[in-house]
Design brief:
Rossmann fold, alpha/beta, 21 helices, 5-stranded parallel sheet, Helicase, Ruva Protein, domain 3, elongated, single chain
Length: about 475
């Protein structure tokens, strides 16, 4: 039995169709115009709508347009006594499943309804299959059996069902985008786009045009209208990675979008309504930044309605062996090889601190699998900084003197030492030195000015 909604301003047609499809065993509701039909659909969904085109208040075409905004997969069959090629073309353009002319053959209409219901069943089965495949993939990619990770999995499943903004925090390499994708894939928005952007990878001007789009002629090079990522993520999810790198001016614009649920493309006068769930991520302390005045406090509270913190790998060491096994399997599958790992190599991996977290571990295993020619990964295939890692020696080097120390001065001196060493190792090349220190060149130059050693790189390049 299916739920059929019959929409027609003529009572005789409503009665006729009610008798026909009630006799087929279906549950029937009726409405006299499109507006009344939309109200009934809000109360209880239907499987198929059979609607006249010409009706007062709201006709069938207007109703179809509204239905496709909220119920894109609902089966809709339109009928009219005033058929025209233009009307039929518009109906199919808007997504009508079929179109029939009055007076119609009842048996033909029954066949059309059965075909539409069969199509709906196939769509539902296909969606369920894709959802199951995607769900397994999303969760499978987040590896861990520790209590901390079980709490993360539970949180993902809980927040996926709501529409609130999520802020994912954690160090670089902890898997923030994987968590964002899992939330999207488990949500009612799963069939719609998941759009990701790294806010720190664009200048303020470029980020605005990427997020909000632009119209032709709004700036040099804008040769055509371009849809922004918020618009592209309509009814889906937009993931704003490294949101802590966003400029103050962009923070103001983003806050307005989140409050108004509208975007204004660069160069446009009109605003466009958007319906995209926002998930943000950062490895910075936005709360502290808001206290320091470098991140808007109102934006912080707007994006952190539901906070999720991902623990660093060193705080869930019990997951390391499972991650190692997962990555070995991944890279062996890619290379068509079968490789294991020796207990000694596994011990080294489990004892290391993993400053780069899961991402660093993944790269380490990829390298080891590529280099290993035996049937098991040997300790020699691991980087020197892992095989030579000695936590007791490091602890001794960082023992606190009995009389204490000036921590701020000590850290600044340590910072300066590493900057100088990076420049020495790269013969004064600031770009390469910044890469060694895993920072942007502009951040390195800030440190050079801070420690009054801006001329050092030039001296090293000249060999002085």
């Amino acid at each position: 039995m299916s739920n059929i909604l019959i929409v027609d301003d003529e009572q005789s047609y409503r009665q006729l169709l009610s008798l026909v499809f009630d006799g087929e065993g279906h549950s029937i509701r009726t409405a006299s115009n499109g507006r009344e039909a939309l109200e009934l659909l809000q109360i209880e969904p239907a499987d198929v709508v059979i609607s006249d085109v010409k009706m007062p208040d709201m006709d069938g075409i207007e109703m179809l347009r509204a239905v496709r905004e909220t119920l894109p997969d609902l089966g809709v069959i339109l009928m009219t006594a005033f058929a025209s090629v233009e009307t039929a073309r518009e109906a199919f353009k808007l997504g009508a499943d079929d179109f029939i002319q009055k007076p119609f053959d009842v048996e033909e209409l029954k066949l059309i309804v059965r075909k539409t219901l069969d199509t709906q069943a196939l769509i539902s089965e296909n969606r369920a299959f894709k959802r199951a495949q995607r769900d397994r993939g999303s969760i499978k990619n987040i590896v861990g059996n520790s209590s901390k990770m079980h709490a993360i999995f539970q949180m993902i499943e809980t927040v996926a069902e709501v529409q609130s903004t999520v802020l994912i925090t954690g160090e670089s390499g902890t898997g923030k985008e994987l968590v964002a994708r899992a939330i999207h894939d488990l949500s009612p928005r799963a069939e719609k786009p998941f759009i990701s952007i790294n806010c720190g990878a664009f200048t303020e001007t470029l980020l605005e045009s990427e997020l909000f789009g632009y119209i032709k002629g709004s700036f040099t090079g804008a040769n055509a209208n371009r849809k922004g990522l918020f618009e592209a993520a309509h009814r889906g999810t937009i993931f704003l990675d490294e949101i802590g790198e966003m400029s103050p001016a962009m923070q103001v614009k983003l806050l307005r979008v989140l409050q108004e649920r509208k975007v204004r493309p660069v160069g446009a006068h009109d605003e466009l309504p958007i319906d995209a769930r926002v998930i943000a991520a950062t490895n910075r302390d936005l709360k502290q930044m808001s206290l320091d005045g470098t991140f808007r406090e109102d934006l912080f509270y707007r994006i952190s309605v539901i906070p999720i913190h991902l623990p660093p790998l060193r705080d869930r060491r019990e997951d390391i062996s499972e991650l190692v096994t997962h990555f070995i399997g991944k890279f062996c599958e890619q290379s068509g090889r079968t490789v294991g790992i020796t207990p000694k190599a596994m011990d080294l991996l489990e004892n290391y601190m993993w400053g780069g977290n899961v991402r660093e571990l993944e790269h380490t295993i990829e390298r080891a699998v590529a280099l290993e020619r035996e049937d098991q990964i040997q300790p020699e295939r691991l980087p020197d900084h892992i095989t030579n890692y000695n936590p007791e020696r490091i602890k001794a080097e960082f023992e606190l003197p009995d009389d204490g120390l000036n921590l701020t001065a000590h850290l600044e001196n340590l910072e300066k030492t590493y900057v100088v060493e990076a420049l020495r190792m790269t013969a004064g090349n600031q770009t390469k030195a910044a890469d060694l220190l895993q920072m942007q060149v502009r951040s390195l130059r800030h440190l050079l000015d801070k420690h009054s050693i801006r001329n050092l790189s030039a001296q090293m390049r000249s060999g002085e």
